[in-house]
């Protein structure tokens, strides 16, 4: 769509505003794609090395091991967004650094994965699955630390 005002056209073209937005989203998509590929490759290698059988899990489902795991997982799922919303408030209205949000994201994700790994290790028939969960959170934390 052509904008009739040439000043706006030359302003956005000369300053590179539109190009910068695309670069940010392209970098984000690239980081997500590389992270997903790295997790997949590491899990595949760990399955081969430790002879871990593949367990069928549904995407976006609640794979709770037992009732205690279900309760802890829901407590984490409720408190994590609350903590992150409070931190976003601090960032917006109290001028805190965005790095605090990333650190809180690392901590809340780490707690979630640690609980899942513990219950996989302690209460399932395939305790080696916890190795895959630990490797996944390790890669995610590593990526977030690199971003910071």
Features:
148 residues, mainly alpha, 78% helix
The outline comes out as globular
Q: Would you tell me the overall average pLDDT?
A: 86
**Number of DSSP strand runs:** 0
% residues in beta strands: under 5%
Biggest pleated sheet:
none
Percentage of residues assigned to helices:
over 70%
Q: Alpha-carbon distance between the termini?
A: 38 Å
Order of helices and strands: HHHHH
Give unreliable regions as ranges.
Answer: 1-11
Can you put this structure into words, describing what you see?
Helix content is 78%, strand content 0%. It has 148 residues and is an all-alpha fold. The chain has five helices and no strands. Helix 2 packs antiparallel against helix 5 (129-147). The protein starts with 5 loop residues before the first helix and ends with a helix.
């Amino acid at each position: 769509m052509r904008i009739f005002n040439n000043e706006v056209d030359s302003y956005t073209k000369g300053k590179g505003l539109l190009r910068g937005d695309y670069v940010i989203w392209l970098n984000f998509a690239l980081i997500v794609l590389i992270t997903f590929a790295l997790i997949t490759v590491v899990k595949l290698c760990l399955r081969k090395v430790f002879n871990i059988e593949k367990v069928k899990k549904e995407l976006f489902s609640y794979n709770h091991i037992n009732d205690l795991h279900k309760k802890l997982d829901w407590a984490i799922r409720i408190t994590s967004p609350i903590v992150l919303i409070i931190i976003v408030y601090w960032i917006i209205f109290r001028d805190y650094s965005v790095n605090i949000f990333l650190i809180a994201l690392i901590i809340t994700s780490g707690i979630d994965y640690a609980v899942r790994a513990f219950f996989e290790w302690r209460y399932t028939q395939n305790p080696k699955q916890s190795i895959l969960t630990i490797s996944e959170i390790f890669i995610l934390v590593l990526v977030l630390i690199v971003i910071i």
